[in-house]
Structures are given as structure tokens and as C-alpha cells.
Amino acid sequence: MSNHLHLILSASDSNLSDTLRDFKKFTSNNIIKAIKNNNYESRRSWMLWIFKKAGEENKRNKDYQFWQQENHPVELSTNEMMDQRLNYLHDNPVRSGAVRSAKEYVYSSAIDYYTTERGLIEIDFIE
Which entry of 51, 66, 76, 123 is 20 to 30 Å from 33 by CA? Predict the structure, then answer.
């Protein structure tokens, strides 16, 4: 989705909270850097201003805030819950009207699950 992200993840070496924190830090630093370095991005000044303003309002940030502080974790303790969440995740762009079928959304793992094609990033399948 263009304004939010759904993930199904597990953390074997650390707790999930630490993994999510590190993910947010890594991605926000790299996204801000990419925006700053992209001279062709017509919204560059506006986006940096928005992220800077959000960062100033949060004492936990040095400069910019890309991600919201809160998240909505749900423990997937059964196979049924995993299937339900995976379907929800894949159907989200369809419900928003971005695509007609889940496998059409380029930023989704749906293509990996519903076809023999592979999506943009390698995934570990939930079975």
C-alpha cells in the first residue's frame, strides 16, 4: 500500500520488538537518504519537510520521523490465524481499489503464492 505496510515476520535470534525497531530504523534512514539524493523527485522538499516536522514533534527522534511510533502487532498462534492474516495482507490492495486481483499488486507477495512467478523480494513461504 502507498501509505502503510503489512508484514508477517518472525524473529528467532531476538525478540520481535527489537527486530521491528531495527527494521524501522534501517528503512527510514535509507528512505530519507534516497529522497534527499533523488534530484528527479518532484515532491522531495515537501516530503522532507513533512518528515522533519514530524521528527521535531517527537522527542525520541534526532531529525526525521518516517514511521509512526505505534504499530499493531498480532501474534499468529495458529495456522488458521496465519492463513487469515496472509489473506488479509494479500487482499488489502484489492479492497483499496489499487488492483483487481491480489497477484497484480507489485509490492505484494501474492504473486509468489498464487503463481509460479516470483515477486520483488525473496520470501519464506508460510505453510
Answer: 123
- Summarize pLDDT for 70-106 with one digit per residue, the tens: 888 888 889 999 999 999 999 999 999 999 999 999 9
Task: Name the nearest CA neighbour of 82 among 121, 45, 125, 120.
Answer: 125
Contact (Cβ atoms closer than 8 angstroms) between residue 123 and residue 112: yes
Mean per-residue pLDDT of the chain: 89
Single out the residue of 101, 97, 72, 98 nearest to residue 85, CA to CA. 72
Nine cell digits for residue 77? 498462534
CA distance 84 to 37: 39
pTM: 0.77
Contacts (Cβ under 8 Å, ≥6 apart) of 98: 1, 2, 105
Q: C-alpha cell of 62?
A: 534526532
| Cα 24 to Cα 30: distance, rounded to the nearest angstrom | 10
Give the span between the Cα atoms of 24 and 26, in whole angstroms.
6
